[in-house]
Amino acid sequence: MSGHSHFTESIEEYLEAVYRLEREGPGVSTSGLASMLGVAPASVSGMLKKLAGDGYLEQVARGEVRLTRKGLEIAVRVLRRHRLAERLLTDVLGMKWEDVHEEACMLEHAISARVEERLIALLNQPTTCPHGHPIPPADLSDPVRVGVPLAQLEEGTSAIICGVTDEVPEILRYLGDLGLRPGAAVRIREKAPLGGPVSIERDGQAHAISLELARMLIVEPA
Hints:
SH3 type barrels; 8 helices; 8 strands
């Protein structure tokens, strides 16, 4: 994009983060944005005020904001390109799924509309990123969400993994080593009481994972 400055990238990152917290997280908060973006809460407050003044956000309650259509258009565009870039890095370039988020954060600002169209065709119209998060529709409608946390399933239930909520590289690396990626078929063997581990079976192999990890894995009961 001609004249695309670091400040423009900062606006895009804020709007993308607001979208993710609005639709994929616990809701928009100053502390949540600060944590996601790695900046001080005071910086977040100042930027939110500016974004609201520029028409990208609107106040809905004390301390709460939501995207206007103007802000939504930018957030969806950036997040689409981010997740398409992640697909390119894993599916075409063969990068590991734990390594692509940071790379995609840089690429998302440089992808043009023309390149986005070519990526969609090259990648065969993907609907999710490698971690199972939906690629937002270009028409700004909310993406269809499927699945429940694996931790909610009863013993003996079979399911297909469709995503993981956390993109922390160490977590993704561990899950990848166990073969617990989107598309993998699993069965709940046993759930220990009092928050104990969950025993699952994949391809005939048993694995015990923590309850915390079982809450991060999103599955569709088979």
